[in-house]
Hints:
This protein has three helices and nine strands, in the order βαβαβββαββββ. It is α/β, with parallel strands linked by helices. Magnesium ion binds next to loops. Pathway: Purine metabolism; GMP biosynthesis via salvage pathway; GMP from guanine: step 1/1; Purine metabolism; IMP biosynthesis via salvage pathway; IMP from hypoxanthine: step 1/1.
Amino acid sequence: MHNDIKEVLISQEEIANKCKELGEQLTREYDGKFPLAIGVLKGAMPFMSDILRYTETYLEMDFMDVSSYGKGMRSSGEVKIVKDLDTKVEGRDLLIIEDIIDSGLTLRYLVDLFKYRKANSVKIVTLLDKPAGRTADIKADLIGFEVPNEFVVGYGLDYQEKYRNLPYIGVLKPEVYGGE
Ligand code: XMP
Ligand code: MG
């Protein structure tokens, strides 16, 4: 285990099994369709890669980078588009792929934006759901794991851009972020 990690919440093996299961579910969900899979950078990158390798439909991939966090640990409530899609979403079936839903502000914003752009359907798959953090009215269609109200890192999730490369989801030691 990495020296900065207090506890592993979800192991590499649990993540791998879940990704296969979710990917297979998406195959059934989008059977006969040609969805546009939208990864929310940067956190969703490993998750997107791991679920879509088990999704056996035609699909297209694109990426969106939005920020509501800056470098801190709390949502600012403001969502900024850092990188927009290259693909037109009008009439498309969209699958938004996220690492974690906390306040839900990021996804609320994205779903509204894609509806405004006249997407045919918008679904959400998230690796982690932190229901205790929710302030916006948003629910994922597919969820990997529920996590407690703690700041988690690894498998795409960062603290100050570090730990995205850990193969598991863990909780940081408080001394790493100057906590109690
Ligand atoms: P909201 O609050 O808009 O947040 O649902 C979504 C984005 O916030 C980040 N986030 C976290 N990142 N550990 C992280 O490394 C966490 O516990 C955490 N909670 C929220 C994340 O970037 C997510 O896409
Ligand atoms: Mg994110």
